[in-house]
């Protein structure tokens, strides 16, 4: 079984003034002269972590990580009362990536994204294919209504009824209406009173983090109990989901042919509750040139057994590709 590379610290970091009042945190690790790669975190609103740096050989890669608008070390946080969500959309984030690439003097980079990060990676690569050397995509998510309905409107509760009870139980009884749960959660998450929005945010994040892995991971679930970070996370997700990611129907699947010529790896856990394997399969069928890995006995998280093996094998394989 492959393991993450040893811990590493950034050698450069800063805040990218992205416009619209947003400052986006970025950092670089590894070899300043190495192959550029940008890591796109999940959520949206999940933020990058020190563990994410370790997916890449630091001797060979120039590793760029960022916290997308409204989360992590970027400012303002979506949990703050003055945060303006109108300037936080998929296409703002795509523009931020292009601005960061230009600011850091990178001509072309590998794009690595999991979960929501796979959505953003696809959106970016389909808009700027000439700037992408390779794609590594994990836990494929495209924000189709069927995907959102599955995990946030009750269907996944048939598999995880215990944690689903906590998610739906955070809503007033009158608002526990299938097909309206995302919208009804918005009323709580965007209520200005912390006594209202913080418990709702913790319930939202707990539902998601509980179902990231096949076997329970108390360390992941514990991170959902932070009311500030969970508020930013849940608000951003809810905002994106209510707007279907600002995608036209099936956009990321239909536009897969735009990726022709970009070496691509798709990695998916068969027992992924959060982003079921059918979406990865649909992407694979639309883009058969990509290498497709359906991992048995794995769920959603990047460090699930089997998934991590393929991810690091893939980054190692691409490290020496000019």
Automatic annotation (TrEMBL):
It is an enzyme of class 3 (hydrolase). One of its GO terms (molecular function) is aminopeptidase activity. Its EC number is 3.4.11.5. The keyword Membrane does not apply. It is found in: Cytoplasm. Keywords: Aminopeptidase, Cytoplasm, Hydrolase, Protease. It catalyses: Release of N-terminal proline from a peptide. The keyword Cell division does not apply. InterPro entries: AB_hydrolase_1 (IPR000073), AB_hydrolase_fold (IPR029058), Peptidase_S33 (IPR002410), Pro_iminopeptidase (IPR005944). GO terms for cellular component: cytoplasm. Residues 35-300 form the AB hydrolase-1 domain. Pfam families: Abhydrolase_1 (PF00561). The active site is at residues 115, 272, 300. GO terms for biological process: proteolysis. It comes from the Bacteria. PANTHER family: PROLINE IMINOPEPTIDASE (PTHR43722). Belongs to the peptidase S33 family. This is Proline iminopeptidase. It comes from Kineosporia babensis. The gene is pip.
